[in-house]
Write a structure and sequence with these properties.
The complex is a heterodimer.
Chain A (H helix, E strand, L loop, with lengths): L19 H6 L3 E9 L9 E7 L2 E6 L8 E12 L1 E6 L12 H10 L2 E6 L10 H13 L4 E4 L1 E2 L12 H7 L4 E2 L8 H14 L3 E3 L4 H4 L4 E2 L2 H6 L3 E2 L1 H18 L3 E3 L5 H12 L4 E5 L1 H5 L21 H12 L5 E2 L8 H4 L16 H11 L5 H16 L14 E11 L18 E11 L2 E5 L8 E2 L6
Parallel strand pairs in A: 1-4, 4-19, 5-6, 6-7, 8-9, 9-10, 10-13, 11-12, 13-14, 14-15
Antiparallel strand pairs in A: 1-2, 2-3, 4-16, 16-17, 17-18
Chain B lengths: L15 H18 L13 E6 L5 H12 L3 E6 L4 H4 L3 H10 L4 E6 L4 H6 L5 E7 L5 H14 L7 E5 L6 H12 L3 E5 L15 E3 L2 H4 L5 E4 L5 H4 L6 H8 L3 H6 L4 E3 L12 H4 L6 H20 L9
Parallel strand pairs in B: 1-2, 1-3, 3-4, 5-6, 5-8, 6-7, 8-9
Helix pairs in contact in B: 1-6, 1-13, 2-13, 6-7, 6-13
Classes of the chains: A alpha/beta, B alpha/beta.
Chain lengths: 466, 311
Amino acid sequence: MMGGPEGSEAAMNRSGSMDPVAGWNALDSVVLRNLRVVDPAGESRGTSDLRVRHGILEAMASELPAVEGASIDFGGAVVMPGLFDMHVHFREPGDEDSETIASGALAAARGGFTEVACMPNSPVRIDGRSVIELIHARARDACGTRIHPVGAMTRNLDGKELTEMAELKQAGAVAVSDDGHPVESSAVMRRGMEYARMCGLPVLSHSEERSLRGQGVMHEGYWSTVLGLRGIPAACEEIGVARDLALCELTGAKLHLCHLSTRGSVALLQRAKERGLPVTAEVTPHHLTLDHSHLRTYDSSFKMNPPLRTEEDVAALRAAVKIGLIDTIASDHAPHAAVRKDGELDLAPFGAIGLETSFGVSYRALVEEEGMRLDDLVERMAVAPRRILGLPGGRLEPGKPADFAILDLAWQWTVDPTAFASLSRNCPFSGWTLKGKILLTVAGGTVTHAAVAPPAEGARVPGGRG
Amino acid sequence: MIFRRRHLLGLEELSREEILHILDTARTFREVLDRPVKKVPSLRGVTVCNAFYEASTRTRLSFELAAKRLSADTLSFSTTGSSVAKGETLLDTIRNIEAMRVDMVVIRHSSSGAAHYLAKRIKARVINAGDGFHEHPTQGLLDLYTIRERFPELNGLRVTIVGDIAHSRVARSNIWALVKCGARVTLCGPSTLMPAEIERTGVRVTNRLEEALEEVQVVMALRVQRERMEGGYLPSMREYARTFGLRSELLQKAGRPLVMHPGPMNRGVEIDPEVADGPDSMILDQVQNGVAVRMAVLFLTWGGSEIEMGA
C-alpha cells in the first residue's frame, strides 16, 4: 500500500502470477469495506470501512466513498490493531538454520503480529550496540514487521557483570532480560534491576531457581514418573518468581514475569499486584492449552521450559489471563532446526515455535472455551505488550501509519508446520483445527502478509465472510 | 489369542491378557530349553540386531541366546555414551543397520523414550531392552513369570519392591505388570528416591522396611548406585544398607518371602549375601526364565502363533 520500492513489476513473481503481498503494496490507495472493528484501546465502533492511502490509515467510518483506486469487501471480517508478541527468539545472529530475522518477521506477519520483541539469547548475544544495529539492519530488509531487540541484562548472559544498559537503550533496546539463563545471584539481579530502572528499561524475567531444575526435562509429577523423565517441580519457578518479586519491591524496578506456568506463580503475582508492585506477567498459548500428559509420546515438540504443567495449572492460567491478572500472551517462539530438536527427548533443546498459531490457539482456549470477549483477547495481544514496554500504537488511529490485522473468524484451518514461514517445525499444535485466519497484516503502512489477492475495482474476498 | 503388536516398548500399554499370553508362550519355550536340543526353527531367516547403547551383560546375552534358540541370525553392537557424543545420531545408526535388512532391533539406551522414538521412524520391529528410567519390559515379564511359577494366582498376591524407585526402569515395568494382574504392590525406599505421585499407579508407598515386609509373599530388591550419594539423594551406602538392605533376620521375621533381584547386585548393600544365596532366592531362576520370556517376545512381535517344536 506504500507504492514504495516494490512497483508492479516486482509484484510479478517468476511464474508470472501476482504475489499478493507485493500486489497489495503496489496499491496507492484502497478502501477496505465492511470490517468489524475490534479496537479495545480506541473508540467503540461497529462495522466500518477503512481507507488506507500511501500507508496511512486515512479514515475509518461506515460507507466511506472511494476517492480513487481499489476497494474490497471483507464481508464482516474483524479488523484489529496489529498484534504484538513481546517474547520471541529469532536465532540470528548465530543459528540461521533455525530462524533468521527475515523468516521470523514473516512468521510474525502470518500470525497477525506487526511488532515483536526478540530475546537476547541468540548464539551471538544481544549485549551491545553492534548486535542491535545488525538486527535493525536485517529487519529493514525483512517483510516489514518491526523488531524490537531486548538487551541482555548481564554480559554474555553469564549472570555476573551488567551490560551497558544506557547504551543498549539508546541503540533501541526496549527492555533487558537474561531469558533462558536466569540470573542465579540475587545480588546481581538486584543491581541489574536498579540499573535498568535508572535507564528506564523494564526487566523481563525468566524466573527460575536453576539448581532445582537440575537435569529436568518436563514437569515433575505423575507423567514424569510414568515416562521415567527427570522432573522440574513447580517450586522451581515459584521460588524464582518469589525472589524476583521481593527484588521488585526492594528496587522499584518494573518487573515483567515471562511465561508463567504454575498456579502458585499466579497466586504470587496476585498478591504482588494487590500490594501495588510495578509487576506485569505473560503466559504462552501452549501453557494455556497443553498439559504434561502430552509428553507421553516422547515428542520433543512438547519439551519446553518452563515445562507443560498440570490441568489445574492450565485452568488457573486461563482464569488469570481472562481477568487481566496475567497481562499479556506471548508465544516464546523458540525455533530449533530439526537436526537438533528431533532426537532423544532428554537430549533435545527446550522450546516450541508459536508465532503462526498464537492467535488461533489463544482464541480457541480463551474465547471459544472460556467465554472471554474478543475485545479482551485483542487487548492482551495488542494493547498490553505496548503498554508494558512503553511503546506507542495498539489502536486504530486515523492519520497514523496503518497497523492492523484482518481476521476471518469463519475460516477454519488445520495447522501444518511444513507450510510455515518459520524455518523450524517444532510446533506442538500440528494437526489442530483452528478458527480464525489472518487475511491481511499491515505493519507501519506496509502489507506484510496477505492471504487474499489485492482488489480490482469493487472486488469481494473470495470465500471470505465474517 | 492373537498377539498383534509389532513392537514391545513397555508394559504400561499392554493389557493383562497380552501379558499373560506372553507368559504362556514363554512356558512353551521354557520346555524347549530343558531339552537336549535347545532350539526351534520359528525365526529361521529372521535377523535380529542387539543395539546396546548402555553397558549390559545379562540382558544382552539373554536376548542373543533367545534369538539363537529361535534360529534367528543375530548381530550385536555395544557402545557407551550417547549417540550424539559419537557424532552419528541414533536414528542414522539404526537406519544404517536396517539398510542391511535387519528385521528386528533390540535396543538398550540411556534416554527414556528411545525405543518409542525408533519405533515411530523405522520399519523393523523394536524391542525395548531398557530405556533410561522408563521401562525394561522383558525384565518385568520375566519377573512376573518367575513369580507366577511359584504363585499361579497373581490376584491379591502381595509383592514389595525395595530401593531406588525413581531411577529404576525395572520397578516401573514390574509395577505395571503386577498391578494389571491384580497383585498388591508396596514400594519401599528413601523418600529422596521415590518418584512423584507414584501412588497413582495403584501402589502403596512406605519408607519403613519392616512395614513393607508384613505379610508379603515376594520381595524384590533394586540395585542402588553409588552416584546417588553424589546427587545428594543418600548420605551413605552404610546408612542405606542398614535402613533398606534385605537382611536375613528381617526376612525370617516376615515369614520368608521369595527374594528377587534384577541384578547386578551390590552384595552387602541392598541385599545380604546370605539372602542372595539362600533357599528363598529366585535370582538365578530369574536369569534362566529370562531367555524363555525373550524368546516369547521375539516370537510374538514377529507375528508367530504356532510353535514348531522341531529344530
